[in-house]
């Protein structure tokens, strides 16, 4: 399939694959691309790179070069909301071209990676993606590969769909109900509402404003209803989520909702999180920990709702795996294990 030739004898021959040059701390990349025809002046450059021999490819029937193989894998395995690079040194990188949530068929991913001489790696599923952020990479391990292995991948993806895609964030309107008689009466300043407003802003959710309520289930339910009438797709109820006798937010959410998905989540911080729906509007009860922690159960649910997903009880249950925040001195979320 390919033969080894001394660089001195390779003048006039085409390089079979990208040749990597590494200068520690300065450069790593392809100094010579696949197909480059070696000239006399290239010989010393190649030797300076430690390349005293090169491969000259002699392709047989049913054999694919690494670059062509990577292109075919990416073509069938990568779905909407993503763009692929050109092959470089046999590898293709996959990036998001929209803001949204990364979706991965994990079982399909495993099935493809079980095929010998193939790799396809991703970041974690349900990751929040910004336009231009890295999502995946793929390549084959050897320089050349039997075409039937690539056809296996194409058949898998034809039957199951792409391995990876991005659900783009949808335009949404959100409102906030801050509960607490002490805030409503002006005894203390509201510090919860501005934190929630910032979270809406970060996700580009149109903010319909903050409404305030006493610790009174009927009043809180009325404020939720007002926001829904104003067009809210998402209502965040901030505070009043504990088991204290004055905390009436869960009762208010139950009273106004058609479906209560959960009161409580296997996530720390955020165990007292609540999710319900009235029609298509998602209503979230957010405990006070969200004032002080950068990442809570809210961060695991809100982006998925924004991408158009209707969250089920089992979705909440599955958050137990990775649902414990390490409480690091310096928070690096989302580049950390939380929610993964």
Automatic annotation (TrEMBL):
Residues 315-340 form the 4Fe-4S ferredoxin-type domain. It holds the Pfam family MoCF_biosynth. InterPro entries: 4Fe4S_Fe-S-bd, MoaB/Mog-like_dom_sf, MoaB/Mog_dom. This is 4Fe-4S ferredoxin-type domain-containing protein.
């Amino acid at each position: 399939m390919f033969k080894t030739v001394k660089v001195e004898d390779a003048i006039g021959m085409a390089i079979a694959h990208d040749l990597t040059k590494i200068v520690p701390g300065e450069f790593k990349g392809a100094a010579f691309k696949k197909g480059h025809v070696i000239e006399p002046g290239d010989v010393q450059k190649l030797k300076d790179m430690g390349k005293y021999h090169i491969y000259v490819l002699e392709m047989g029937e049913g054999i694919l070069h690494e670059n062509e193989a990577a292109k075919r894998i990416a073509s069938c395995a990568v779905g909407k909301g993503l763009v692929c690079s050109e092959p470089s040194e046999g590898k293709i990188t996959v990036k998001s071209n929209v803001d949204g949530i990364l979706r991965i068929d994990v079982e399909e991913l495993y099935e493809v990676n079980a095929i010998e001489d193939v790799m396809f790696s991703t970041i974690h599923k349900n990751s929040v993606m910004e336009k231009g952020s890295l999502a995946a990479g793929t390549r084959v391990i050897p320089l050349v590969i039997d075409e039937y292995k690539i056809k296996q991948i194409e058949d898998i993806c034809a039957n199951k769909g792409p391995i990876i895609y991005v659900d783009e964030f949808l335009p949404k309107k959100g409102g906030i109900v801050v509960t607490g008689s002490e805030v409503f009466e002006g005894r203390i300043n509201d510090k919860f509402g501005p934190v929630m407003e910032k979270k809406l802003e970060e996700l580009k959710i149109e903010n319909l404003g903050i409404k305030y309520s006493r610790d009174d289930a009927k009043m809180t339910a009325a404020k939720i209803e007002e926001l829904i009438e104003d067009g809210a797709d998402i209502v965040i109820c901030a505070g009043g989520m504990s088991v204290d006798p004055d905390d009436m937010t869960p009762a208010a959410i139950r009273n106004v909702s058609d479906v209560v998905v959960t009161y409580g989540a296997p996530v720390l911080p955020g165990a007292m999180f609540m999710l319900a729906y009235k029609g298509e509007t998602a209503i979230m009860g957010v405990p006070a920990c969200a004032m002080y922690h950068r990442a809570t159960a809210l961060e695991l649910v809100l982006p998925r709702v924004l991408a158009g997903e209707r969250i089920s009880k089992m979705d909440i249950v599955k958050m137990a795996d990775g649902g414990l925040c390490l409480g690091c001195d310096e928070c690096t979320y989302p580049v950390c294990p939380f929610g993964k």
